[in-house]
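Design request, tokens follow.
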């Protein structure tokens, strides 16, 4: 447990990447961690595009300026939900697909951090232009882009609410 808490404390959204490239095999290991993430009905409602050195500019040109120095990206697509998941989503008034993608993204980021790779989850981008730049004719939605690289700065101390502010113990 202590090792996981140490890992969680180390992970942060990097905005100071060096220009060092992240090896494709290392990005694949991060996606492997996402592949085994839990999802409703084991639906795995995602598809990942692993972006290597030759396509970095095609992605970063559609993102915030700090990503220009990122050494790799993972573009996360949402796959349409199956009928059982759609029914459950409707009954529960809950969209499990987006929750599942969030869990998978967390697995990616924690795996990357464990490997010494800094990362940042991005939700603001020009989806149409990003697909065009990558020559992707995928009708599915891009939900996230995860920038990967190596930080030029040390991890900062996290500022978070105290446990008592975010939880209630019922005994």
């Amino acid at each position: 447990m202590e090792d996981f808490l140490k890992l969680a404390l180390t992970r942060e959204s990097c905005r100071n990447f060096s220009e060092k490239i992240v090896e494709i095999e290392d990005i694949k290991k991060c996606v492997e961690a996402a592949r085994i993430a839990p999802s409703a009905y084991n639906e795995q409602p995602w598809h990942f595009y692993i972006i290597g050195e030759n396509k970095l500019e095609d992605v970063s040109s559609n993102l915030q300026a700090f990503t220009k120095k990122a050494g790799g990206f993972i573009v996360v697509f949402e796959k349409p939900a199956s009928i059982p998941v759609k029914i459950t989503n409707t009954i529960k008034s809950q969209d499990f697909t987006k929750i599942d993608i969030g869990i998978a993204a967390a697995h990616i980021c924690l795996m990357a951090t464990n490997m010494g790779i800094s990362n940042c989850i991005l939700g603001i981008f020009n989806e149409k232009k990003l697909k065009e730049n990558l020559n992707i004719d995928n009708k599915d939605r891009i939900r996230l882009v995860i920038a990967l690289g190596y930080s030029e700065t040390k991890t900062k101390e996290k500022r978070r609410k105290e446990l008592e502010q975010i939880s209630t113990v019922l005994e």
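Comment from the thread starter after seeing the answer: thanks! The chain has a mean pLDDT of 94.
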